[in-house]
Predict the 3D structure of the following.
Amino acid sequence: MPEITPFLKSLLSTSGLSAYETPAAQLIEAKWRPLVNEISLSRIGSLQALKSGTATAPRPSLMVCTHMDAIGLMVTTVTEGFLHVTQIGGVDPRILPGTPVTVHGTEELPGVVVIPPVRALPPNVGDGVVGLNDLLVDVGLTPQEVAAKVHTGDLVSFATEPGELAGEVISGHSLDNRAAVAVMTVALEELQKKTHAWDVWAVATAQEEVSLGGAFTSAFGLRPSLAITVDVTFAKGPGASDWQTFGLGKGPTLAMGPNMHPFLYNQLKDLAEKLEIPYQLEYAPRHSGTDGYATQIAAEGIPGMVIGIPLRYMHTPVEVVALKDIQRAGRLVAEFIAALEPDFVEKIVWED
Amino acid sequence: MPNLTEKQFKLLEKLSSACAVSGDEGEVRKIVIEEAKPYADDLKVDALGNVLVTKAGKGPNRVRVMLDAHMDEVGFMLVADDGDGLYRFELVGGIDVRQLPGKQVLVGKSRLPGVIGARPIHLTTAEDRQRKIPLDALRIDLGPAGKAKLGDRATFKPHFQRVGASLFAKAIDNRIGCAILLEMLKNAPENVDLCLSFSVQEEIGLRGAKVAAYHFDPQVAFAIDGTPANDLPVHDGAENTFYNTKLGAGPAIYTYDAGTLNDPRLIRFLTATAVSAKIPYQLRQPGGGATDAGAIHRQRAGIPTVSISVPHRYSHTAISLMRVDDWKQTQALLLAALKRMTPELLAEDRP
């Protein structure tokens, strides 16, 4: 079992929905604190950790975004002891029935998402798809107990426990994007053994799943010279074999397209080649769908790059990631940081 | 009847967490044999895999009573190997395919962990999301190095959690019945000769109970099972008149389901027993579904039979929900009924 697994499993066993990232932030802070020089929360709740470089100040800085927020549900109303919910982030209601959840009321209550009996549903539903409007959460308590403990606006997080599958693969909810938090952790650990000229801002961003709010504001506040975003991407698997999908365990993806600076893309590709780290090329013709967009357009614009971790069943409670892809991406990020020369920014050119 | 003991909860957890899909009941069979043996006069496993246990009473005028609870649960069988640890599977028993995406499963005798995923929402259209994900689009994923045998059974991953007055668990249908039968064996009254059938293959056609009833040839039979509680709010606020049973309202005595018109003398006997022993009960609404009673009452020259079930929500899904008190009261009612059992009961006129 790779060294990072227990930490990653602890992250997959916690909630930390968008705008309510504290439970995840606390775990990450405890893990990162010994690895960095300073660490604090941004105004919007992103965890910002600085590992100082060795170049003469003022030093250039690289920000690495790994969003820590998770998708989930929120209580809209309580009816006869049952909870109606809406989504935080993109949730396909078809993966919800039978899913164990934690309702964050006046105390944490275990529950399950349920399909009401067919005759309790609007007549057009039948045995078809039951949308979020009609699914309910049952916490097994009496209507009186529920009314006292659960209120509109309370969070409902997935409670499926993380597990390991055969072949050094981990499964759980919120691997999007706690897998990338694990990547940055691996990178920070690697950097303990290396020197680097640049300052490194490891940022576990908030609210990526809803607004990219954490990345926009940390990019503005920290004003890094460069930004790398590590986020999950689609792995090939049952129901997903299109061009947007990549081999699970076949290496991190390096994304090219308008969100990414072509110079950085080529640098990372060359570095992966040199280090013999397997990688896959990902094409994002419009929007990478990551914090990479927010950092790109923050302030006067920041050159950036997006690294993807192939993940199966994205936004379900049983997402799947290969641990070696996490280790490879962590090493790649660390080596990239260690190789940054003090004047690297000046070398970034448009090769038109 | 005294309160449920920690030992009883532990046993139910063990039964619930066992994986025993219809036709492959070995894990539950093993637990049942281990628990029943010290109390049984005779115990055997028959040709289909039923565990048949007898316990004789003492004195005259004993009634030969069959108690049945099925051991099997709904689940899956692996039917095709797609490589890289991905397997196609078929359903065994009545499972709603809408309950499958996003679930953890255990596969085969070595209980290999697997997951059933779904295409990411990002790669679906609003139109896609209006259609159910069909079974043939789903796979059990054991991980790239995962290796199972075709024909292996799989179940939802066990889940057992006590919350307030309730219990969330896998396979309440019908490990609760197994637990209740074992409790009856351990507290067997002397006025009855108990014939217990821990039956196989109920979920795919009441097969085990049919041959068990033939073997025992009892004077009267009780099928102990779980039944759905559909007591959820109606979307437009109308009264729910189709609840089948309600959680917390006590044991559900059957009247009429798709398999059985339960013996009216036994229904009357049970309700009278409940009233005199001050045990709450409810009458399950007539409707669909069936229990082993459907096979038992037509066996041989006919066996007066009635079903009693523990109400539970979300049957045949990964996580069902019951009230602990309904379990306790079902045991209390069954034990009280056994104690009041006399041969005269069956001499009563039919209404």
